[in-house]
C-alpha cells in the first residue's frame, strides 16, 4: 500500500519526467486527445527509444495523467492553493507507475537518470533556486506548472536542504498552511498523496526553531491521522479504489503507521532514496 514514489525507481522516473517535459503542453490544452506532444516526442526519440519503448505509448500515459490532474483540480476547493500540489503529486505518481512498467532493466534506467542529472547540473539550475521564494514553490497559485515542477525536481535531484532557503516565518507559515489544507474534509482525493506530502513538509516542520510552534505543527499532522482513522472502511475503499474484502483497513493502518514513524533521508549522491527510523539529516 505504500506509495511507490518512495522507491528509488519511481523517484528517479519522476525526476526524469519532470526535468525534461513541459507539462504545460498537457495541462493547458482543452482537448486532451489533441494534446501537443512535441517536447515529449523529442525526448523519447532521443533517449527512451534506446530501450525500445514506443513513444506513442508513453504519450498516452502522460495525456491520461494530465486528464486526471485537471479533473482532480476541479474537485478541490478553489480557495486552497494547495490544489496545485495535490494535482502534481497525483500526476507524478500516475506517470511514474506507468513508466516503471516500461523499464524492466533497472540498471539501464538508473544510467539514464544519471545522464539527466548531469545535464541538469551543467545547465546551472542552482541559479533558478536563488531567484525562487520557497512559499511560491510549494504553494504555486500564481506560478506556472512547468517552473514549479522543475523546482520540485531540483529539490530531490540536487539534495538541497530546504531549511537553508527559508526563514523561520516562511517555514512555519508554509508548513501550517499545508497541514491545515489537508485537514479540510474533502481535500484528500487519493490517500497515496499523503505519503508524498509527509516528505514535502517534514523538512519544513524540522526547520521550525521555536519549540512550541514545532510541537503545535506536529500535533496538527497527528490530527490528520486521527481524522483518517475515523473514516469507515467503505470510505477508505472509495478513496483508494479497493474493495471491502481486500484488507483495506489493515493496509491503511500499516500505511499511516509507516508515515508516523519514518522520515526520509538521502543515502546516496545519485538516485538512492531510503527510509530511516526517526532520522532526518538532509533531503
From TrEMBL:
Q: What is this protein called?
A: Transposase
SUPFAM superfamilies linked to this entry: Ribonuclease H-like (SSF53098)
Annotated organism of origin: Anaeramoeba flamelloides
Which InterPro entries does its entry note? RNaseH-like_sf (IPR012337)
